Amino acid sequence: MKRAVLAAGLVVVLAGTACSAAAADSDPAPSPSPSGPLASTLVLTAPAQVVDERKAMLRVTWTTSDGQPVTGAVTFVRAKKAGAAGLQYRTVATDADGTAELAVRPRVDTWWRALGHDGTSPEGEVAPADSKKVEVDNVPPRPPLKLPRAAPKPRPLPAQPRAVGPGANAVVTKIPARVWRRMVGVSWRSGCPVGRAGLRLMRVNYWGFDGYRHRGEMVAAASAIGKVAGAFTALYRHHYPIRSMRLVDYFGYSKKDWGGNDDASMAHDNTSAFNCRWVGGVPGRVSNHALGIAVDINTWENPYQSPTGPEPDGWWLGHSQKNLTFRSTSDPVVRLLAKHGLHWVLGMDDTQHFEVR
Hints:
The protein has 357 residues and is of the alpha+beta class. It folds into 2 domains: 40-139, Immunoglobulin-like (Sandwich); 171-356. It is 15% helix and 31% strand. It has 5 helices and 24 strands. The strands form 8 sheets. Strands 2, 4, 5, 7, 10 and 11 form a 6-stranded mixed β-sheet that branches. Strands 12, 13, 14 and 15 form a 4-stranded mixed β-sheet that branches. Strands 1-3-6 form a 3-stranded antiparallel β-sheet, with no helix packed on it. It starts with a helix and ends with a strand. Mean pLDDT is 88; it is low at 1-34.
């Protein structure tokens, strides 16, 4: 049988040769043009919105021009701006149905597209394909805080990083070298009543005015940091909003304050604790912030009475808002903080000010 197949094969070859010779004197027949890779379509679908920290499922379907599924590698590309080119995020393979899925947890608004590499279909090689770009809008877990229309606004700040870990996730450490370098000459200098060994850094999640969970940081005395961490964990559980929680060093040094620039910190509605400075408006008198036992919370909405008038803005002294401002010892948030050792000691004279007792 093998010999028969070979003989038959020789006949075909010879016949083909004979035909070619016979046609040598006539016009050559046009040779068929080589066929290129099959055209294909890659369709990417995604939810229009995803709640921050939750999963969004991206799904691609890859088919040839006649509807046959394509198996091959698909690379997801992510961009943080509508017109940006984007960066490769991950490559997955389509299944026998020409589909593939990828679960993502975008922490900001993102734009996605999918690139299909050379694959194979029942009909042969398939050309690369590129999907249209789709947007996934990241939305906050809670509604943004609504403030009175007439309320003046503090100076704006960039949003702090998004939260890390579940809950408040308060983490207390000794002062890292990087943080200490920022503090020296601003919120701390030689002669301050508490040194580096007596201070601690707390990083904690908080609910922002924008409805997102953010990660803030605060320095306080080692003797007080446990109560401070407990108090801010309670504030988180209570969904109490905080606009910003940066070290006062972020705002630079103030010769007037003899320490970190408290005026700038308040004007940006910043929540902070340790600051080796004088009492506001009383040069030479050391503040309890220099001891690391005092905390100022949402300073714009909770002003204090300085010798020259309300600071940083007087509008809020005549107004209040539930679960934001402190105006009485019977306020639920004031009572919550007192339960965890953070006391509202100065009342309406300094509504933002709490101390560990």
